[in-house]
Amino acid sequence: ATGLVGKNVLHQLAARGSMPIALARRQIEGLPANAELLEIDFKQFLIDGELPQCDHLYICLGTTIKKAGSRDAFRTVDFEYSLALAQKAKEAGATGVSLVSSVGADSNSNAFYLKTKGQLEEAIKTLGFSSVNIYRPGILRGDRPESRPLEAVGKIACRLIDPLLMGRLSQYRSIRADFLASTMIDNTDLEEGVNYFYFKNFNAK
């Protein structure tokens, strides 16, 4: 709940009167008064972690290969930690899950990043949730607590390219993190089954 999308989901849920439980590896500055912080060590969590009773899980966990330090470390965060959260939430009573994935995610992709995202999607779909909402955004726009130079360059390029992406290509448009977060919350109680969301489905207006 300290990343770009997770922070927005947390604050928007709290603003709507919900009482969200924020999972984080450290203290959260500006935690809403009606939110609860569950500080966890993910390595230990994989072994014997438990989550309190919950109805819906929002998975916004993610990193980059550069920040993680290696492909294996990246996969640990983006796949293993995320899947563990989903498994523990299911055990705690959650019937729905919302996952922030990526446009182009494909378990058969030759690109390691997209392959990992696709494999996570497939794994979560097997856990037995009544509803699985998978969000596949392009570049996320917003103020991150850490610097991501390549993403910063991408944001500048998006200002020029986004208007040119029409039709099927519109799924590659960038999206503001707060718009994505509001879409995720609006769709929490959507119909059962596996649902995919792209730029055209986001609250982007």
What does this structure look like?
The protein has 205 residues and is α/β, with parallel strands linked by helices. The chain is built from 7 helices and 8 strands; from the N terminus they run H-E-E-H-E-H-H-E-H-E-E-H-E-H-E. It has helices at 4-15, 42-48, 65-68, 71-91, 112-125, 149-161, 177-186; strands spanning 21-24, 36-39, 56-59, 96-100, 131-135, 140-141, 175-176, 193-197. Helix 1 crosses helix 7 (177-186). The model has no long low-confidence stretch (mean pLDDT 91).
Any descriptors?
single chain; 4-stranded parallel β-sheet; 205 residues; alpha/beta; two-stranded parallel ribbon; 7 helices; globular
Structure, briefly:
With 205 residues, the chain is α/β, with parallel strands linked by helices. It has helices at residues 4-15, 42-48, 65-68, 71-91, 112-125, 149-161, 177-186, and strands spanning 21-24, 36-39, 56-59, 96-100, 131-135, 140-141, 175-176, 193-197.
- Average pLDDT level: 91
Q: Over the alpha carbons, how many angstroms does the gyration radius reach?
A: 16 Å
Number of strands: 8
Strand order of the largest sheet: 3-4-5-8
* Number of discrete helical segments: 7
Q: What's the overall geometry? A: globular
Strand content: 15-25%
Sequence of secondary-structure elements: HEEHEHHEHEEHEHE
CA distance, first residue to last residue = 25 Å
Q: What are the low-pLDDT stretches, counting only 5+ consecutive residues below 50?
A: none
Helix percentage: 25-40%
Major sheet attributes: 4 strands, parallel
Classify the secondary structure makeup into a structural class: alpha/beta
